[in-house]
Amino acid sequence: MSGAAVGAPVERREGREKVTGTARYAAEFALPGRLFARPVPATVARGRVTGVDASEALRLPGVVDVLTHENAPRLGEPDDATLAVLQGPEIPHRGWCVALVVARSPEEAREGAAAVRVSCVPEPHDVTLSAAHPRSYVPEEVYVGCPAVTEQGDPEGAFAGAAARVDVGYRVPPLHNHPMEPHASTAHWDGERLTVHTSSQGTTTVRAVLAGLFGLTEDRITVVAEHVGGGFGSKGTPRPDVVLAVMAALRTGRPVTVALPRRFLPSTVGHRAPTEHRLRLGADADGRLTSLVHEVATHTSRVKEFVEQAALPARVMYACPALRTLHRVVALDVPTPSWMRAPGEAPGMYALESAMDELAVELGMDPIELRVRNEPETEPDSGRPFSSRHLVECLREGARRFGWEGRDPRPGTRAQGPLLIGTGVAAATYPVAVGPSTASARALPDGGFLVETNATDIGTGARTVLAQIAADALGVPLERVRIRVGSSDLPSAPLAGGSSGTASWGWPVHEACTRLAERLAGSAGRIPQEGLVEHADTAGRADAKSPYARHAFGAHFAEVAVDTVTGEVRVRRLLGVYAAGRILNSRTARSQFVGGMTMGLGMALTEGSTVDAAFGDFAESDLASYHVPAHADVPDIEAHWVEEHDPHLNPPGGKGIGEIGIVGTAAAIGNAVHHATGVRLRELPLTPDRVLAAMNAL
Length: 698
Fold this sequence. Notes:
- There is one protein chain.
- The protein is of the alpha+beta class.
- The protein is 25% helix and 24% strand.
- It contains 16 helices and 26 strands.
- It has a seven-stranded mixed beta sheet with strand order 3-5-1-14-11-12-13, sandwiched between helices.
- Helix 8 runs parallel beside helix 15 (665-677), helix 11 runs parallel beside helix 12 (501-521) and helix 13 (586-605) packs across helix 15 (665-677).
């Protein structure tokens, strides 16, 4: 595939709408007669509702109705039990919705929710994760088709006989997505037809779920996500806000908007589950791995099983004849965890890449050379050949750009007054995912083209990149191509998640436009008033099992300054180099890489949550207590990539870039802190109190 548009740094098509405020989000559709609804969360960690007194709330001005488990519409049995809201008296965790107040304004709904009196019988609860929890178990799989346990060779025997050994534990706390736009939905019934505007990463899925819950055929439902203010995985599946909005609209006969307050998000829309890791690495005197064991403990809820697949990267990264990975999970009285940017890979690679750094110290070997020495010829777990793998090139190019050569490996050797300076490196990987998708391309009499697919632009620039793919396939200037995305009435497409969006949607867009261009070439340029249209569907091909192991790879470099007086860690430089197939838009790609790296910085230094054992809830539930970083927290941040041609992916040749930027960042920063101070901290985030205490303990 060649052309002038793909690869160019094209500005986002929706940029002007966003900066001028004309882009409309899910809560901003002011339909006539619209009402607003606010959930009432449970205030016990586990128990049962014995009564709901809504009388005071209903007397307040503006309050129209109060839904409870006794009067709410009955739902069909959901595949996702987190959506079975107001269907019974059981309270599985604190924050579970026990009532919904519907009013004329958001303020009146908030006041009404505060006036609802809910009587509960609390039950004993357990919210504390430990690797030795008596109820922990090994799940059947951690992701579709991914077993929880894998083993090759004799890891225990190889570890015992290794010349160099590292046996270490790491902990990553609960993390929260916190998109700029909290979850919101506006639902409207027009007779028997339902229209929903929702903040979602995939409206095709939302429509299917709503059809099952409310006993409708899908052709009676339209779900729109015109603009989405971030999601990072938390909007990857329907959340209770969309179900509550539809229920309230059905009961009142009027449009209803449900916009979740930010404080409700941790208990309502998923989170990255805490993970406890044990890594055992054995190597010979030359640094070649002889044993690799990665064991993970995590929690799930009693509502629905979700397992953070954090040991999966160990099955991909390094050549090792004896390898074991294991996941254990315990069901607790906590909100159901879910996807968060690079689920599994982000915490798993933090632990693995930190342990590799510790092994390099044990061997007295440069950490880049240790990784290069253990480069596999095929994927270690499956034995399949890689479709492409250029990790070594990323490490070498990153080292050159970062100025790694001549680095003194001894910790604590660089000082600037009270500051200790250190540098660190970590590798990154993320799997390639492509799903079946459809698209249509229409040639219009005015000389323009309309391309349609139900992609979702969650701020990544999907509209722009798909237009670039279409323009090159059609052989026309970019300005002649219009793109429509974000509605379930458009040709069906999978959600924006798993770094699979552009790879999935771009395939049928390319095919439909290629067919249309061929048809136009044989039509002597005559286009009827209704236009000429071509369709494409990649089912059976995009979802076909590949004989290749398909992954993106990258290398992260960090320079930190650690204040010996306060314990504060400041990241001075971050640099990433990636091998992610063909880069389809250099401007939006760099933005995605930089955004992921910034989010990884937050994972390393500021972001962390705790579950209060007595209260049963996350103590950090807003942005005043859960600290996310800004780009200003990294004075110097660079993202680069190596040219990579991979013929085993899809016609555009892209691998997906939304998540690999976060994967290795936390480990690179942690390794840099060790290089600066000689202190190895194994629990995130690396907050000043922890860093200072560790330095003082030396």
